[in-house]
């Protein structure tokens, strides 16, 4: 078992169990760049979206970079106990964050998927946020966020949809998250600008998220 520490290394689920980022056993050798070009890189803006003009280092440049990115970031999560027992947790994926609940019964997991982008960093790639039990059973998917390449460039602009998803420290296993009300555009005048929602890890059927707070400023 080898650690894959690109996006993390391990977290303590409780005092005797670790959730570890490992290199999948099925991972082969690093991709080799073909001598045959992939072809021209074409970018269009037919929808007239906002074009990002921030300078960001380390972006993917071509399809070969995409293969390298997947090769080195794909992780197999593993539950490892102090007595040496090891158990795979979920399928291999590009996991960027894992967070146990305060009561140690659930784990909040964030992963990213294709399509990737050559114009924004991995934090803007499509994301899935899911809740699993601490012993490796899938509970539910909170959201599936799309690729975002058109976040307004104004300071404090954000992506639409659920963001900053985490566990409430004052509850055993209750989530909170933020949703913008201005379309993510900081220049838009609106009240409230952000709403903080909260909901149990396993809500009863039909239980809607509860509004925790409304904010006129960006959270």
TrEMBL record:
<dbReference type="GO" id="GO:0016787">
    <property type="term" value="F:hydrolase activity"/>
</dbReference>
<feature type="signal peptide">
    <location>
        <begin position="1"/>
        <end position="28"/>
    </location>
</feature>
<protein>
    <recommendedName>
        <fullName>Dipeptidylpeptidase IV N-terminal domain-containing protein</fullName>
    </recommendedName>
</protein>
<keyword id="KW-0732">Signal</keyword>
<keyword id="KW-0378">Hydrolase</keyword>
């Amino acid at each position: 078992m080898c650690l894959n520490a690109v996006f993390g290394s391990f977290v303590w689920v409780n005092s005797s169990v670790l959730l570890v980022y490992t290199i999948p056993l099925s991972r082969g050798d690093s991709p080799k760049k073909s001598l045959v070009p992939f072809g021209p890189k074409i970018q269009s803006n037919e929808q007239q979206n906002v074009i990002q003009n921030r300078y960001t280092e380390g972006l993917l440049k071509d399809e070969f970079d995409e293969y390298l990115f997947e090769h080195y970031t794909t992780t197999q999560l593993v539950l490892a106990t102090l007595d040496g027992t090891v158990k795979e947790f979920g399928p291999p994926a590009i996991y960027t964050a894992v967070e146990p609940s305060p009561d140690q019964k659930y784990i909040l997991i964030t992963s990213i998927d294709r399509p990737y982008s050559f114009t924004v960093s991995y934090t803007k790639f499509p994301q899935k946020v899911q809740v699993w039990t601490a012993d490796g059973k899938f509970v539910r998917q909170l959201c599936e966020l799309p690729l975002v390449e058109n976040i307004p460039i104004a300071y404090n602009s954000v992506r639409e949809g659920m963001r900053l998803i985490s566990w409430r420290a004052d509850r055993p296993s209750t989530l909170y998250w933020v949703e913008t009300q201005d379309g993510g555009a900081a220049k838009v005048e609106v009240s409230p600008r952000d709403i903080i929602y909260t909901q149990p890890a396993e809500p009863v059927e039909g239980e809607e998220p509860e509004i925790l707070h409304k904010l006129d400023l960006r959270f």
